[in-house]
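FIELD: query
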Amino acid sequence: DAADKAQKVTVPCEYVGQFNPRGDIDGVQFEAKKGDEVAIEIISQRSGLSTDPVLLVQRADVKDGKTEWKDVQEVDDDARNIGQTAFNSSTGDPYYKLTAPQDGAYRVSVRDLYGDSRGDARLIYRLSLRKPQADFRLIALPVTIAKGANNNSGQGYKPWGTLIRSGEIGTVTVMAARQDGFDGPIRVKIEGLPAGVTASEAVLGSKQDLVPLAIVVPEKTAPWQGSVRVVGTAEVDGKPVKHEARATSILATGANNRSAEARVTQELMLAVGGTDVLPYAVELGDGKVVSGEQGAKVVIPVKITRRGDFKEPLLLTPLGLPPYAKVAQVTFNPADKNPSITVELDKAAPVGELSFALTGVVPKFTYNRDKSAVETVNKVKADAAKAAAAMTEVATKAKAAAAAAPKEKKPDADKLAAEAAEKAKLADAANKAIAARADAVVKAGTAKSVNNVPIISTVVTLKVTAPAPKEDPKKPVAKK
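FIELD: result
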């Protein structure tokens, strides 16, 4: 309960304490050699508590037999946010990786930022002291992270569900929580997709924490639903490591740049196919890895498929690009020939692979909600009209035959004509009822407009290479 009475521990260890009583400060002390690394972490707010832990790392400076504790670092929140406002991973629990500047004793003090005004035995924390271990964890979010032209409109991130229609490109956004300084490439892919549905492998490159996995559903794909899994592989400290992503979902979207509400789920569910076909699709690249040198500009072709009467311009921005690669926001119009984007690589861009896609929001388009139902009722409507017309023709002929019938056969002819006229009347009434019902189904099955629909392209992988060494003009050319 006092920093000067810190409990002595040996790394690695975990220490459990309480922010109690009011004004409480707890501390532990350990020995370290110069250059030793210690990962220091508090777990409290992530346990669902209303705490705001703060840790202070100090080192002992001994002079003339007296010990003076000098501050190394004070840490409040862990602001690392791998999911932007779609899946905010930042936390009030602090993390710090200590590299010991000298041999000696080190002390970690723990307090609650608001401890001067509260104290409660229920406000517990875990203090972890361990050797850093490079690793990663993956999070799979089945949502298109799509920013519109006005991100304050609330259309920034949408809980769009996991139904991917025929002819559509859907996505699962994969985020990497890198542990203890791991910055190597992570290859991610989806397993368990139905036949005909594909999703190319993507790479989370250096300093890249988010990448989309584009799921391509061809037209006329049979309906399917089930669970899929996202797995990632990487080489960590020279050894292959494989992790399965935790499935998550968005409960409510965030407006005005506020974070959405998200949660962890048991499975990553997916539904594909059906008779409905979206009127657009965007393909980035040609399915092959694109290469570019550090400091270069790389041009990547874009193929846009427009179906039916869809002629809306598409405003697209890159999704998943790390800070050392830049792509300007691009508007693609129907009249554009040979559309493309240009990636500008920094001269200091790390050598290696990275993947990204284009994303955006389609502001408005007309869309048939249930095309098969519309086609069915239109056929029924046409058949009813045809049957009514046929009965009307029969009644007309029967009436004419009755008028021309001889006297002895006229009663029977009149009777047949009356029956035919009654049947024609019933057929006409049925035709009108079917037509009205069909028109209602068509109206319900056709949306006049759909607004702010997320769009995602296929994923392209870019390989960053070092420039080829320049030849020295003064160097003599070797003779053969």
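FIELD: remark
Residues 147-156 have pLDDT under 50 and may be disordered.
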